[in-house]
């Protein structure tokens, strides 16, 4: 394979290098949650000393370094603790996806203060280019909207409809769902109950309301309770 043609996870131990070829999106997910299974994350169930040259790592050295020569066990160490090296093509693709998502969120939640109508997507795109707004390929789009809006407002008059939403999370899902809640808006107040459940009120851009419900219910298997307390224009 030519240089840069594959995505790899790489772990260096002293002077030795161990690599596995990965599906990049799955590898990034695995680093956060240990799912999906490692055999789905790696393209080949092999450990390399140089994946681009097809040079396999020594099983003897794997046993010495990792305590095992099982390729999938070693791959778990590499993906979890090593560096994920992505191709320029994949990084560009990921950034394009995040950019489109940010534009979509602004289009759905923001309106022209004069007309009370959403700005066309093409107008938002043009304003982002003029403002030289940079989108981070590895940061959730929802967390970047407010930063982009600060750059757009001098160029594009825009007003966001904001909703105050009370959310209750069951104990079984609260710890996992809590970081998602913080991605979507500003927490006004919150409380953890003795049974491990959580309740809070947050400000969310109006167009992101349904996305918030969808994300939380996926984690909590439909056990989330939420209601809009008020809408601020």
CATH class of the largest domain reads Alpha Beta
Biggest sheet: strands, sense, closure?
Answer: 4 strands, antiparallel
Based on CA atoms alone, the radius of gyration comes out at: 22 Å
**CATH architecture call of the largest domain:** 2-Layer Sandwich
The helix content is 40-55%
What structural category arises from helix and sheet content? alpha+beta
Question: What is the number of helical segments per DSSP (H or I, 4+ residues)?
Answer: 9
Which whole number gives the mean pLDDT?
A: 90
Poorly predicted regions:
none
List keywords for this structure.
233 residues; Hypothetical 12.0 Kda Protein In Nam8-gar1 Intergenic Region, Chain: A; Arc Repressor Mutant, subunit A; four-stranded antiparallel sheet; three-stranded antiparallel sheet; 9 helices; 11 strands; 24% strand; flat
């Amino acid at each position: 394979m030519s240089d840069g043609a594959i995505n790899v996870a790489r772990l260096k131990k002293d002077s030795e290098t161990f690599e596995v070829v990965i599906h990049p999106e799955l590898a990034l997910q695995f680093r956060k949650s240990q799912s999906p299974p490692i055999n789905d994350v790696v393209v080949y169930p092999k450990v390399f000393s140089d994946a681009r040259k097809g040079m396999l790592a020594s099983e003897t050295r794997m046993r010495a370094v990792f305590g095992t020569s099982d390729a999938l066990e070693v791959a778990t160490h590499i993906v979890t603790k090593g560096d994920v090296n992505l191709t320029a093509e994949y990084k560009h693709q990921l950034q394009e996806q995040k950019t489109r998502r940010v534009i979509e969120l602004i289009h759905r939640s923001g309106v022209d203060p004069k007309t009370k109508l959403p700005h066309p997507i093409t107008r938002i795109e043009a304003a982002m280019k003029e403002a030289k707004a940079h989108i981070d390929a590895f940061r959730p789009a929802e967390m970047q909207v407010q930063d982009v809006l600060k750059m757009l407002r001098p160029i594009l008059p825009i007003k966001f409809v904001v909703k105050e939403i009370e959310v209750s999370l069951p104990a079984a899902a609260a710890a996992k769902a809590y970081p998602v809640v913080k991605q979507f808006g500003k927490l006004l107040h919150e409380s953890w109950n003795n049974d491990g459940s959580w309740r809070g009120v947050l400000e969310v851009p109006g167009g992101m309301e349904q996305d918030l419900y969808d994300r939380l219910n996926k984690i909590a298997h439909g056990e989330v309770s939420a209601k809009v307390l008020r809408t601020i224009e």
